[in-house]
Amino acid sequence: MTGTDGDAASISALGGTLRGGAGRLADHVHDLDAPAGRQVRRGGADPTARERDLLTRTATELDAVGGLLQTLTATTAESTARLRALEPDLRRAGLVLEGSLVVEAPGPSRVEPDTRLRERARLQELLNRITSTRARELARLRRELERSTAALARISDRSRSGA
Amino acid sequence: MTDGTGQRAAGAADPATLRALADARAGARSLSDALLTHLPDVGDLATQRLLDAWVEQGADTLRALAEALEERLLDLGSAGTGPADTGPSATERSVEAGGLRGWAP
Nearest to residue B104, comparing CAs of B19, B14, B37? Predict the structure, then answer.
């Protein structure tokens, strides 16, 4: 895309690990639910209420971030495809991409200066729309990472304090 | 360890509970290790820093969770065996008998 898009496969892999792991943690909660229910029905104390709560909260955080990473992967792939679709127009107008800017290709051009200018403005507008979609996803991911890091730290504290 | 109400969970060495706790403990540990093998590259410095910190925190939380599960497992196991039992704990016997559910991150 623009050379600053990272490695989509590595993001996708982490997202998959997180969502799969969250699912398995939820399965463990389910496995603990049944015997705890039997014990409570017999009049005993719930032996794993705290552990099920910790597992559920952790799974929720992993699932949330894993989902956003998978969304970012999809957005990046879509943006890459949309950028690729601009390439023929860029070539015809003697333009190239430089990061997030549409600029004139080096050397002489047979394209009319007015046409080139119009095309440059039009393609820059399209490029802005494409890159802003990914920028929004990144901003959303940053907000969620900040929130989730704090939430996970609280779960760590609770796990180690026995609270 | 208490049941959260300040009381020890009496007679709580239910084999299904012990197996589920052992599975969950193994799962949390395994997932913590798996998280640290990832080297995600988002291509944006600010996001990258937050993601790296999150992965570290996530791995730590899963380790803490595994420790909490281990503690509960030992607590319930010892509650079921009584102080005179010096052989393998009920926890270990139950888990060995039932085996652990396969857990691959």
Answer: B37
The strand pairing partners of A101, in sequence order, are A98
Compute the nearest-CA separation of A120 from chain B (Å).
26
Asked if A127 contacts A97 with a C-beta cutoff of 8 angstroms, the reply is: yes
- Contact list in B for residue A10 (CB cut-off 8 A) is 38-41
Dihedrals φ, ψ of A97, to 5°? -95, 135
Domain ranges of chain A: 8-161
CA dist., res. A156 & res. B25, Å (int)? 14
For B38, the closest of A5, A17, A65 (CB atoms) is A17
pTM of the model: 0.81
B73 within 8 A of B18, measured Cβ to Cβ:
yes
Domain ranges of chain B: 15-78+88-98
Inter-chain CB proximity B43 and A28 less than 8 Å: no
**A14, A39, A72 ranked by CB distance to B12: nearest:** A39
**Residue A88 banded pLDDT, cuts 50, 70, 90:** very high
Q: Please count the other Cβ atoms lying within 10 Å of the Cβ belonging to residue A74.
A: 14
Pairwise CB contact (< 8 Å): B54 & A45? no
B92, pLDDT greater than 80 = no
Task: Give the three-state DSSP class for B87.
Answer: coil
The chain A residue lying nearest B23, using CA atoms, is A28
CB under 8 Å to A102, separation ≥6 — which residues?
A90, A95, A96, A120, A123, A124, A127
A149:B54 CB<8 A: yes
Q: Tell me the per-residue pLDDT of A48-79, one tens digit each, with 9 for 90 and over.
A: 999 999 999 999 999 999 999 999 999 988 98
Residue whose pair of structure tokens reads 């393998």 in the numeric block: B88
